[in-house]
Amino acid sequence: MVISEFIWAIRDPYNILIQVAGHFKQTKTGAWIEAVVNVVISITLVWKYGLVGVAIGTLVAMTIRGIEFMFYSARHILKRKLRYNWKYVLIIISEFFIILLLKRLLPEVEITNYFEWIGQAFKITAIAAVTVVIINVIAYKKEVNEVMNFIKNKLKGTNTDNGRI
C-alpha cells in the first residue's frame, strides 16, 4: 500500500495538470482501463494473497495510468520531450532509495512508547527533507536559481516600498 501511495504521489502532478488543462475527457479511456486492470488483477490475486493481492492490483493499475498521464501531458499539454518526465520520476525514485539507505544506517532503536516513536520519526523526516533538498538543488540547479532570483527581485522591489517587506 505504501508503494501504491508512492506511485500516486508521482503521478498526481500529471493528473492535476491534465485536469487543469481541461483534458479529462481525452484521458477517460485510461480511467476505464485503470479500473478494469485494478479489478481483474485484484480479484485474481485476492484469493491467494488476500489484501496484498488487492494492493498489487492497485499498484499495477496506478502505474499504468501514471505512465499514460506522463505520455499524454508531455505530448498534448507541455509539448516537450518525454525525457523530462522520466528525469523527474528517476530523481524521485533515487531520492526514495537514498533515504531508505540512510535510514538503514541509523542504529536500530527499540521503540517502547509514543515519544520514542515520534523522536525516531523526526530523525527520519529530517534525513528525508535534507536528502530531497540536496538532490533537488543539484538536479534542478537552473530552476532553483530562477526561483532564488525571483525571490531576490521581489524582496528588492518590496524593500523600496516604505521600508516594509
Question: Biggest sheet, open or closed, and with what strands and sense?
Answer: none
What's the β-strand tally?
0
User: How do the SSEs run, as a string of H and E?
Assistant: HHHHHH
The residue fraction in helices comes out at over 70%
Which term fits the overall shape?
flat
Low-confidence stretches: none
Percent of residues in beta strands: under 5%
Radius of gyration: 21 Å
* Average of pLDDT: 90
Structural class: mainly alpha
Distance between the termini: 45 Å
Tally of contiguous helical segments: 6
Integer tally of domains: 2
Describe the structure.
The chain is an all-alpha fold. It folds into two domains: 1-80; 81-165, no CATH class. 82% of the residues lie in helices and 0% in strands. The protein is built from six helices and no strands. The protein has helices spanning 2-20, 28-49, 51-77, 83-105, 114-139, 141-159. The protein is flat. The termini are far apart. The model has no long low-confidence stretch (mean pLDDT 90).
